[in-house]
Amino acid sequence: MSTIQLTTSQKRVLTALVNLAENRDCPVSGRTIAESIDRNPGTVRNGMQSLRSIGLVEGVAGPKGGYVPTDAAYETLGVERMDDAERTPVERDGDVVDGVNVEEIDLSSVANPDLCRAELVIRGPVGSFDPGDEVTVGPTPGAGLRLSGVVDATHIDGNTLLVRVEGMETPSGEQAA
User: Are 154 and 126 in contact (CB under 8 A)?
Assistant: First the structure.
C-alpha cells in the first residue's frame, strides 16, 4: 500500500470519488461528489486540486467533465477496483438502490440471532441510507446468501452501513439466522 498520507477531508473526497466512479464510463462531477458526502462543491474542487497534484485524481475538462481516480488512488485507499465484479444488490424498503454494490459483509454475534449485526462495506453512495431503513442484501455471488435487517448507523467516510440483522436465507430458502 502507498505511503501517501491524506487529511481526513482528502480521504473523504477520494473515497467518494472511487465509490462513485465504479462501473462508470464517464468522469464524476464535483457536484455529484459534494452531494454524496454532504459538502459544498467548492470544498470538493479545492480538495481535488491537491489530490490531482499528488497524482491520485485526473481532471477531465468540458461540460461532461469531472474527475477520475487513478490506480494510485485505489492503492492509497487500500481498495480493489471492482470493474466487472459480480454484483451483490442492495434494496432499501423493497426498492433496489441503483449504483450501490456490496463489497464486503462482516458479521458479528452470529451465534446469537438477537444480537447479530452486519457491517456492510458499500461501493456507491451510502448517504442515501438512514438509520431505521429496512435493507436486504443479496443474493451474494457464489453462496447466494440474502441478508435482511435494519440500518442502525451509516459511516459516510468509509461507506459502511451497520445493520441489525433480522434474517438470513440460503438459496434453498432455509433460514440461516
Answer: yes
